[in-house]
Amino acid sequence: MEVIITVRLPRDAASVPVIRGILNAALRVIGVAPQVRDDIQLMLAEACTNVVLHARAADEYDVTARVCEDLCVLKVTDQGGGLIDESVPAAAGLAETGRGLKIMEDLADAMLVANFPERGLSVHLEKVLQFAPDALGERLQVASANGANTHLRR
């Protein structure tokens, strides 16, 4: 089983809950465990919020979510000019802002930030999925691994 969702969104704060809702619905349908869905939604929200707040030169940004077997891969890309200074400052302990990258790093099983100065930034996040008992996604994985015929018959 493989699910791919690709969306181009306006760089507007209202776009963040939209993409969170779309991805959460897809993950819920295939039976991803609620805590894992929550982690993925928070990672996605942080990445998208960073674009909305910091990618000033961009009018839009792209989000791709790919679920394959037991892995969710998120990629959030903007054309906002990238980081001027490639070093990302560490957030102060109780700071209200500046913690997004740290939150993503803590929740993700893998994270890569690719900076393209004057062209944009791409955040790549991976999360290993856990499924609820008898989840549709887990059953489809087993069927796919066993080579089950998934074509509709007339």
UniProtKB/TrEMBL annotation:
This is Serine/threonine-protein kinase RsbW. Residues 10-114 form the Histidine kinase/HSP90-like ATPase domain. The lineage of its organism: Bacteria, Bacillati, Actinomycetota, Actinomycetes, Streptosporangiales. GO terms for molecular function: protein serine/threonine kinase activity. PANTHER family: ANTI-SIGMA-F FACTOR RSBW, ANTI-SIGMA-F FACTOR RSBW-RELATED. It comes from the Bacteria. InterPro entries: Anti-sigma-factor_SerPK (IPR050267), HATPase_C_sf (IPR036890), HATPase_dom (IPR003594). Keywords: Kinase, Serine/threonine-protein kinase, Transferase. SUPFAM superfamilies: ATPase domain of HSP90 chaperone/DNA topoisomerase II/histidine kinase.
